[in-house]
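Predict structure. Input: Sulfite reductase (NADPH) hemoprotein beta-component, 104 residues.
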Amino acid sequence: MARAFTPKVITANDLIAGDVIYQTADDRWSRDLAEAELITDEAHAQLRLLDAVRQASKVVGAYLADVRPGPNGPEPVHFREDFRRTGPSNYAHGKQETSPQPRA
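Output follows.
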């Protein structure tokens, strides 16, 4: 039996800055997961991923990440994605400094 499709977002890394970015419904790239397009249809997800992969002059490593709907937009369901959205953890500035989540 096939697994049911779970909601996804398109994520990648900014080609120049290296930051984690998310594709929005209006075809922008945002550093904020809350702005990401929540994709609930598998065919639409595959088309959006193809579009993201074609943007090799802007992004690298685009893929579909599992999320769940949240009160402020998509929320990660896997530790890896939760960790990625907070940015690099080897320095205390940028996303790490402004994150409301406690640092280890």
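The beta strands are 8-14, 20-23, 29-30, 59-70, 73-76.
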